[in-house]
Amino acid sequence: MPNKKKYNVDGDAGRKAQIQFADQKQEFNKRPTKIGRRSLSRSISQSSTDSYSSAASYTDSSDDETSPRDKQQKNSKGSSDFCVKNIKQAEFGRREIEIAEQEMPALMALRKRAQGEKPLAGAKIVGCTHITAQTAVLMETLGALGAQCRWAACNIYSTLNEVAAALAESGFPVFAWKGESEDDFWWCIDRCVNVEGWQPNMILDDGGDLTHWIYKKYPNMFKKIKGIVEESVTGVHRLYQLSKAGKLCVPAMNVNDSVTKQKFDNLYCCRESILDGLKRTTDMMFGGKQVVVCGYGEVGKGCCAALKAMGSIVYVTEIDPICALQACMDGFRLVKLNEVIRQVDIVITCTGNKNVVTREHLDRMKNSCIVCNMGHSNTEIDVASLRTPELTWERVRSQVDHVIWPDGKRIVLLAEGRLLNLSCSTVPTFVLSITATTQALALIELYNAPEGRYKQDVYLLPKKMDEYVASLHLPTFDAHLTELTDEQAKYLGLNKNGPFKPNYYRC
């Protein structure tokens, strides 16, 4: 396809800012139940479905219990290349997408400015992310930019059925519904990838399950794939593992560690959505509650700030002395989990690690302690250890379980240890606009990059692109940036139009 020279964006003051893609000189910086009838794989990777799934309880009561895989559905155009809960919900999903568009100004700007040039013309993107109204806006933006898309869900509980239906009605091959079984999860991914006459050339992943599925089942596909864009801690960790082992055979973009993802999605999104998720599932009062937050990265910082503001007594566990010192300077008590496990009312994991909360911790918790996870993967809480004969599971409401010990003690487990906010509530659209815009620009860059620019490694977004994403969202606040004078720019050794920080600076 013709080489795309540059992608032009008009600024508020009438200036024309230019973000170069294919001819960009500067490379990105490198940085090191219902059991299904067919089992595609369970041991393929440490997936977001590793623990037992009681998916049958997570269905919409307004729908029948027939598995979407057993239904024959077509959209209004006669296409059946999708699998959703109920295609008849499409109208409701479309309204939700239209609401989300109002809070995603940067993506709407990209659509408008791409009406002439199609920087993703010829791109065939296979995606595996949370399927929400915000993701729908991203997918439809990618379509407006010229791409063809096929999509599955990265989490068995986060799909909004009506949004999936709206996407299917619009012609997007979507394979996802809320409450998938583990077998359903892998089946949906396989249906996205393994289709006659369609070969993906880009991957957009959240958690790494899609990438690992292709590696294990269809490795020859990577001969035509130009790159991977990954947005989660878990998925990025898995990419670095592949790179270290010499098995990463295409370039990959680490969106998770971009400033626009870390400082906005991880921090501000979690600061608001942690309260929403806990309120919807438990109706609890936060004032005076003792909470331990495991991990003081950006997600942990957001959770701690929200809970402290509501009057909770917050403890923090951390392995990194720098993050630990930040927690102390922010007024939180740094502890080991064992020191407070008997007294706290809520345990929240935010690490991206595994076995942060073990069976020993669970055994020692007080009666009615609430346990939940704000990390992508369900490995942080050892939920599998609770699936033993001596413990009783009692469903309270959707995605809320009591796990009862022989002496009558019970804990309240939310979303079976999966991502709390997207499983049990919603997340602020505006911050997801920032992340989605970053993903779109990363896809454009990788797709249009000339051969040889990016090697088989993991790359970070340049600061210039982070700044560009932020600038697209400033008009929402009627914000006015100060411009450097020529003298000031020379004094600082900067270009007047940025970047204003070096690529290694994390804000």
TrEMBL record:
Q: Which domain of life is it from?
A: Eukaryota
Residues reported in the UniProt entry to bind NAD(+): 297-302, 318, 421
Region forming the signal peptide: none
- Provide ranges: composition bias, Basic residues: 31-40
List, for all copies, the residue spans of the domain called S-adenosyl-L-homocysteine hydrolase NAD binding.
266-427
User: What sort of enzyme, by top EC class, is this?
Assistant: hydrolase
Question: What does this protein need as cofactor?
Answer: NAD(+)
Q: Which PROSITE patterns match?
A: ADOHCYASE_1, ADOHCYASE_2
Composition bias (Low complexity) maps to 41-60
Q: Where is this region: Disordered?
A: 1-80
The catalytic activity of this protein is classed by the Enzyme Commission as 3.13.2.1
What does the cofactor field's note say? Binds 1 NAD(+) per subunit.
The protein's UniProt keywords, in alphabetical order, are: Hydrolase, NAD, One-carbon metabolism
What Pfam families does the record point to?
A: AdoHcyase, AdoHcyase_NAD
Gene Ontology cellular-component terms listed: cytosol
Pathway where it operates:
Amino-acid biosynthesis; L-homocysteine biosynthesis; L-homocysteine from S-adenosyl-L-homocysteine: step 1/1
Positions binding substrate in this chain are 132, 206, 231, 261, 265
The UniProt similarity line reads:
Belongs to the adenosylhomocysteinase family.
Q: What is this protein called?
A: Adenosylhomocysteinase
Source species: Odontophorus gujanensis (marbled wood quail)
